C-alpha cells in the first residue's frame, strides 16, 4: 500500500483523528505503541507486515490512527486472494488474533470506517476482525451487518514463578503423563534449529491432512522477530521426538507451530514439550501461557482442556462486502473430509512441495 493516509468522513468528535498507512520506516514507532497497548497482541506487531508481504506475497494495509501527533490505535490488515475461497481483507491472516487495538471509541470507529472503505475499494468478499477480546465501548459503523460465528476458542492461563506450582496446576491425569516422560529420560533444548524442526513439523501436519508452510516461512519468522521467536526441541538421547516454535510477547509465551514424531505419542514427548515450554517460559520471567486457538469439537480443543485450561470463545467478526455468504474454511465441514483423506495419502515429499502453494490461500 503506497498511500500515506486514507480519506474518511470524520464525525465532529473525530475531527482531529487521521488514519494513515504504516510505512517501512515507521515500524519502531508502531511497535512502541503495541508494546504498551493493553489490547494489543503479538500478532499486532509491525513485523507481520514483512511476513505478509515477503513470506506470503499478500498486500498489507497496516492502518494506524494518529491523534495529536501520536499513534492512538492500530489495525493490521492483509488482502488475502484465494482461488479456493475468494478475496478477503483480514486482521490478520495466519494469525489467531487481530482486530483494532487501542484508542478511544472514536479512534476505533475511525479505524473501522477506514477499513470498510478499503474493503469496498478492493472489492473483497468480506472483511474479518480476529478479535481476542473486543474492547469495551467499541462501536463499529452503524450500517455494518457484522456476522459472528462461534468457531474458535483460545486457552490462556497464568504461570507461577515456581516450576513445581505450575506442574501441580496441571490436572492429575495429564500431570502423570508429564512425570512419566520426565522419568523416561526426555529432555529439551532451545536450539533454534529449523533444519531439525521442519521435518518433524511437516510430517506431523501431513498426518493430520493439513498443507504445510514452506521452510522459508519459519526462517523468516526467526529473522523478523529475533529473540521473540524460539524453537524448543524434545530429545530422548540424541533422537529428536517433538519440536515447537514459540513466540514471546511482553510477559506471555505462545507455542505456535508444533509437531511430534509417531514415537512421541507413546513416550509422551508432545506433552513434555508443552510442559517444557511452560517451565522454561516461567524461568524466563513469563507470567502468561497462551495455548492458542482451537476449533470447537476438535481433538486439539479437548487436549488443551485436559491440561486444565478454560476455553475462552473468540469473538471473531465478519462483514460481507461483495460476498453473499462466508466461505466455509473449516476442516469439520464434511466436504473437506475427502480432501483431508486424500492429502494424507500423498507422499510426504510431494505434500511438502505442494503444501506451501496451497496454504498461502487459506489464511
Describe the structure.
The protein is of the alpha+beta class and 363 residues long. The chain folds into two domains: 12-151 and 314-327, Aminopeptidase, CATH 3.40.630; 155-312, Aminopeptidase. It contains twelve helices and 14 strands. The strands form two sheets. It has a seven-stranded mixed β-sheet with strand order 1-2-3-4-5-14-6, sandwiched between helices. Strands 8-9-10-11-12-7-13 form a seven-stranded mixed β-sheet. A hairpin with a 2-residue loop joins strand 2 and strand 3. Helix 2 packs antiparallel against helix 7 (215-225) and helix 5 crosses helix 9. The radius of gyration is 21 Å and the shape is globular. The relative contact order is 0.15.
Quick take:
This protein has twelve helices and 14 strands.
Amino acid at each position: 500500500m503506497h498511500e500515506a493516509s486514507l480519506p474518511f468522513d470524520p464525525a465532529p468528535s473525530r475531527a482531529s483523528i487521521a488514519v494513515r498507512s504504516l510505512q517501512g520506516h515507521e515500524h519502531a514507532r508502531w511497535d512502541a505503541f503495541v508494546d504498551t497497548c493493553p489490547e494489543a497482541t503479538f500478532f499486532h506487531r509491525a513485523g507481520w507486515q514483512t511476513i505478509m508481504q515477503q513470506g506470503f506475497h499478500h498486500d498489507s494495509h497496516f492502518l494506524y490512527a494518529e491523534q495529536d501527533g501520536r499513534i492512538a490505535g492500530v489495525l493490521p490488515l492483509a488482502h488475502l486472494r484465494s482461488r479456493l475461497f475468494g478475496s478477503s481483507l483480514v486482521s490478520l491472516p495466519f494469525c489467531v488474533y487481530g482486530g483494532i487495538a487501542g484508542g478511544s471509541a472514536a479512534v476505533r470507529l475511525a479505524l473501522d470506517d477506514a477499513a470498510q472503505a478499503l474493503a469496498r475499494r478492493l472489492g473483497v468478499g468480506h472483511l474479518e476482525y480476529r478479535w481476542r477480546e473486543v474492547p469495551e465501548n467499541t462501536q463499529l459503523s452503524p450500517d455494518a451487518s457484522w456476522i459472528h460465528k462461534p468457531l474458535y476458542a483460545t486457552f490462556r492461563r497464568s504461570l507461577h514463578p515456581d516450576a513445581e506450582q505450575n506442574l501441580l496446576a496441571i490436572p492429575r491425569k495429564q500431570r502423570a503423563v508429564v512425570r512419566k516422560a520426565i522419568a523416561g529420560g526426555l529432555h529439551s533444548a532451545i536450539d533454534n534449529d529449523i533444519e531439525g524442526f521442519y521435518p518433524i513439523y511437516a510430517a506431523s501436519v501431513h498426518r493430520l491432512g493439513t498443507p504445510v508452510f514452506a521452510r522459508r516461512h519459519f526462517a523468516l519468522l526467526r529473522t523478523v522477530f529475533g529473540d521473540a521467536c524460539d524453537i524448543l526441541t524434545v530429545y530422548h538421547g540424541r533422537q529428536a521426538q517433538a519440536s515447537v516454535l514459540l513466540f514471546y510477547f511482553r510477559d506471555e509465551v505462545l507455542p505456535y507451530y508444533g509437531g511430534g514424531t509417531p514415537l512421541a505419542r507413546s513416550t509422551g514427548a508432545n506433552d513434555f514439550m508443552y510442559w517444557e515450554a511452560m517451565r522454561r517460559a516461567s524461568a524466563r520471567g513469563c507470567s502468561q501461557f497462551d495455548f492458542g486457538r482451537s476449533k470447537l469439537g476438535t481433538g486439539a480443543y479437548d487436549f488443551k482442556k485436559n491440561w486444565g485450561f478454560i476455553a475462552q470463545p473468540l469473538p471473531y467478526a465478519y462483514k460481507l462486502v461483495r460476498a453473499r455468504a462466508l466461505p466455509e474454511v473449516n476442516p469439520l465441514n464434511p466436504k473437506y473430509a475427502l480432501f483431508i483423506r486424500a492429502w494424507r495419502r500423498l507422499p510426504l515429499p510431494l505434500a511438502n512441495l505442494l503444501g506451501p502453494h496451497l496454504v498461502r490461500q487459506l489464511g
